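[agent] plan:
  1. take the single chain provided in the ticket
  2. run structure prediction with default settings
  3. attach structure tokens to the ticket
  4. add a short note for the reviewer (M.T.)
[agent] executing step 1
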Amino acid sequence: MNLIKKRGLYLVLLAVAAVLAVVTAILGATQNAMTLNTSFSPLLTASLLAGAALVTVHLFVDWDFLPLLASVCFSAGFGMIVNEGLAVVVDKMNDISFQGGNFPLVAAYMAMSFVACVLSIIACFMKKKEKAQ
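[agent] step 2 finished; step 3 output follows
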């Protein structure tokens, strides 16, 4: 708690975004819910986990560019989830099963990664507390 008081509330937003990204990456890599009943691509999983790793590093090292890099990783992960899962959403909208996939899980992946992306972007613009001299 002292770390948050000393550096700012933005760390809470980054931590929540990292947890959501890790949960999304683990669920997506273990469940076969995407198009053609496949799991996440390795690049997608690596992008989400890299963003979470950058947030973890930022908890211990006060480099100002790490939240921005984490936001880039989360945004890339969200974009890849939308790209890979859009066929499942279109199948659900048209009430057909052409590409396969599990719509509720794909929608949950999209929602969790979107929230992680938005929280990390908001954290980039929040005021950081002054460093103690």
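[agent] step 4 note for reviewer: The chain has a mean pLDDT of 88.
[agent] ticket updated
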